[in-house]
Amino acid sequence: MSVQGLRTISKAQNGLAGFILQCKRLEFNYCDWAGSSRGMKAFLTHNLPSFAKANPQIEMVVSPRPHKHPIIRGVYINGREKVICVRNLQHQQILEKANLLKNSSGLKLKKINKPVASVNESVRGIFSPFHGVQHV
To answer: Model confidence over 81-110: pLDDT tens digits?
Structure first.
C-alpha cells in the first residue's frame, strides 16, 4: 500500500497566506526653482527609475510643488498618509526616507505601557525568581 498526497492548492485567506504591502502610493513633490529641492531633483533623475522598477506594486507620482519645500507623501491601504519633508537632503538620504515610507504600516505610533503585549492576561502574573519559597 503506497501513500499518496492530496492534490490541492492552498488558497489565500484575506492576507493570511501572503504578504500584502501596506503602502499603495508614494508621491514625490519638488520645486524647480528652490535650492532646497536640489537633492530631490537628483533623486528623481538617478534613483527613482531603479526604485520604481524594484517596487512595481507601488504607484509612484511625481509632481511639482512651486515655492514649497520638497516632500514625500506615503498613502496606505488603511486610508492614512505619512508626509516627510526632505529639504536640503542628498539623494541617498531621500532614498532612505522613501524606503522608510515604503516599509511603514501607516498606523499611528502607539505608546507601549507593558513590555509584553498579549490578548490574554496571565493569571499568575509575571514570573520572578525572588517570589515563592526561599531555597537555602
So the answer is: 999 999 999 999 999 999 999 999 888 888
C-alpha–C-alpha distance, residues 5 and 42, integer Å: 55
* Helix or strand (DSSP H, E) at 98: helix 91-103
pTM, two decimal places: 0.71
C-alpha cell at 73: 507623501
Biggest CA pair distance of the chain: 79
Query: What contacts 24+ positions apart, CB below 8 Å, involve 62-65?
Result: 62/27, 62/28, 62/30, 63/27, 63/28, 63/29, 64/29, 64/30, 64/31, 64/32, 65/29, 65/30, 65/31
